[in-house]
Amino acid sequence: MILISACLAGRNVKYSGGHNAVPWLCQWIAHHREQVLLVCPEVMGGLPVPRPPAEIRLTGTKAEDRRVINKAGGDVTAQFRLGAEKVLALVKEHHIFVAILKANSPSCSPQNVYDGTFSGTLIPGLGITASLLKDHGVEVYSEENLTPALLEKMINV
Fold this sequence. Notes:
alpha/beta, two-stranded antiparallel sheet
């Protein structure tokens, strides 16, 4: 089974109320429903749709020094961490070892996040959920480094 960000599958869970559907991935999911688990850590953590955009701010050098702040100035770190923990519980329950998560997301990104200034500046870093999953041995990809051939290889392992 593969874990996939619900927004990539066309579910309207994005902060703006929309989605980030990847057409070929949506078609693939339609043909492999029994092998896919769709999640949105932010919604699972209790955040509404729509919601203010959020970014990670570093307040120190340790992982727990990462705070998730929304554009209105609210600290939503607790909701992001709760959603990540709920996703991890599903990963363990379903014995999932591969995840395809939304690039640049403060929850899901496996490689870059926005820098916390809401200026559109990306920096190297992991989203809260991506970091937790990687810490537990899950291979995390984004739609930016995924191909149909790679996805087929993942599902056939």
